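Box 3.1. Reading complex inputs
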Amino acid sequence: SQKIEQNSEALNIQEGKTATLTCNYTNYSPAYLQWYRQDPGRGPVFLLLIRENEKEKRKERLKVTFDTTLKQSLFHITASQPADSATYLCAPLETDSWGKLQFGSGTQVVVTP
Amino acid sequence: GAGVSQSPRYKVAKRGQDVALRCDPISGHVSLFWYQQALGQGPEFLTYFQNEAQLDKSGLPSDRFFAERPEGSVSTLKIQRTQQEDSAVYLCASSLQSGGATSRQPQHFGDGTRLSIL
């Protein structure tokens, strides 16, 4: 069966450091992979989409990589700030999926000053 | 408003009661999705609409769950004879395009309805 694994343990990191989150998937052949941020009591907010033929994508302090051989995406937050504290969700998507998102359980990031 | 709006934000019901949850998507968005999120988990897909057509309802947990979008805009998720296991946050999301292009589109989520069944 299809499975998406994200580190369930919270990632505690000091302000200014780089946070690296992992998303592993099995039994998927995703054409795209999306990353979302979710704050407590709020809905997820879209951050980045990376395509299968893109190795890396950047947006401001965020960087995402996508390795279809390893079946893994890495999400980096550089120069982290306390405002980056949230839960981050990944969602691999296959082309014929109607856009139906299947999420990992998310990784909580806590950035301390 | 500019975003996806869901109401009510909180709903408490007794086991066995029927509930209705409303979603107002972003105006003009063709695709609408419902998700269920349990505490500490990622959202799980329930159903998908393209305009008024319900194209995928494979995630609905039982026949007690019913969703509609009669005019292709506002959607309602109804749960009949609620059970305690229905307690969760119900999220609605919309995206601009439909079909294969939907996979490339960001989904815009509302803040959800937190449903508690006593």
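In summary: The longest strand of chain B covers residues 88-95.
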